[in-house]
């Protein structure tokens, strides 16, 4: 039962990330939504795999993949956002504040 709940939560997070990719106005918001939702979704699915298979080969591989996915996705998203900002991609029209502009100076 725990496996089904964790996998369903993971699928819901992934769906929310996909909706965020479609609905949000600019590249920064889209990437943030995709990174947060898909990372939590995939980690939840992998945790469901751990509960389903236990500490077998598949369980160990899932436990090994969770921290790698968590840290590599956040670092990659940060690098992509930083690159988009330096390339000159504009914020959305409804964006209120640009905190990174002061850091770049």
Compose a concise summary of this entry.
By secondary structure, the protein is an all-alpha fold.
Task: Set down the secondary structure blueprint.
Blueprint lengths: L1 H22 L3 H27 L3 H31 L12 H5 L1
Helix pairs in contact: 1-2, 2-3
Word description of this protein:
By secondary structure, the chain is mostly helical. It has a single domain, classed as Helix Hairpins (Orthogonal Bundle). Helices cover 81% and strands 0% of the residues. It contains 4 helices and no strands. Helix 1 runs antiparallel to helix 2 and helix 2 packs antiparallel against helix 3 (57-87). It is elongated, with a radius of gyration of 17 Å. The N and C termini lie far apart (53 Å). The model has no long low-confidence stretch (mean pLDDT 88).
Helix content: over 70%
Name of the top-level CATH class: Mainly Alpha
CATH fold annotation:
Helix Hairpins
The shape, in one word, is elongated
Features:
mainly alpha; 0% strand; Helix Hairpins
């Amino acid at each position: 039962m725990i496996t089904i709940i964790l996998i369903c939560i993971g699928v819901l997070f992934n769906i929310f990330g996909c909706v965020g990719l479609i609905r949000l106005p600019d590249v920064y918001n889209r990437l943030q939504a995709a990174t947060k939702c898909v990372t939590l979704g995939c980690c939840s699915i992998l945790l469901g795999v751990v509960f389903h298979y236990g500490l077998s080969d598949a369980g160990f591989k899932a436990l090994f993949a969770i921290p790698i996915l968590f840290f590599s996705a956040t670092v990659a998203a940060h690098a992509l956002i930083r690159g988009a900002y330096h390339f000159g991609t504009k914020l959305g029209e409804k964006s209120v504040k640009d905190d990174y502009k002061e850091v770049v100076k």
